[in-house]
Amino acid sequence: MPIYEFECPSCAHRFERLQKVSDADPSDCPECGKHGVRRRLTAPAFRLSGSGWYETDFKKEGDTRRNLASSESAEKPAAADTSAKPEPVKTETKKPESKPSAANEG
After folding, report:
1. CATH number of the domain where residue 2 is located
2. Where is the Putative regulatory protein FmdB zinc ribbon domain positioned along the sequence (predicted)?
3. Helix (H) or strand (E) holding 73
4. 8 Å CB contact between 56 and 67
5. Does residue 26 lie within any of the structural domains?
6. What's the pLDDT tens digit per position in 9-63?
7. How many whole angstroms separate alpha carbon 1 and alpha carbon 10?
8. Which of 26, 29, 32, 40 suits 3 as a labelling partner, its CA being 20 to 30 A distant?
9. pLDDT tens for residues 62-104?
10. Which of 67, 49, 50 has its CA nearest to residue 59?
């Protein structure tokens, strides 16, 4: 469910409310009680409650775990392999061919 932010124009009190998209916005300020609360335009915020919502909601039978931060990677620390070092790349530089200038000719 989205979290909406509201502001009272009378007392400038700001508050958040967790509500459905179809729910009506509050009309009265919880601080001063005056009518005319307006929804503020803010970045969208929502809460995914529960653990592993992707794993439980979209996983098919027989799928393997796809979480890259699984406990398996935590158990096996990365070992530095120093025996197989890549050979340095040799680069050849070509000298530009010198051409006689047109001023020296003729």
Report:
1. 2.20.28
2. 1-42
3. helix 71-75
4. no
5. yes
6. 999 999 999 989 899 999 999 999 999 999 998 887 666 666 666 666 666 666 6
7. 28
8. 32
9. 666 665 555 555 555 555 555 555 666 666 666 666 666 665 5
10. 67
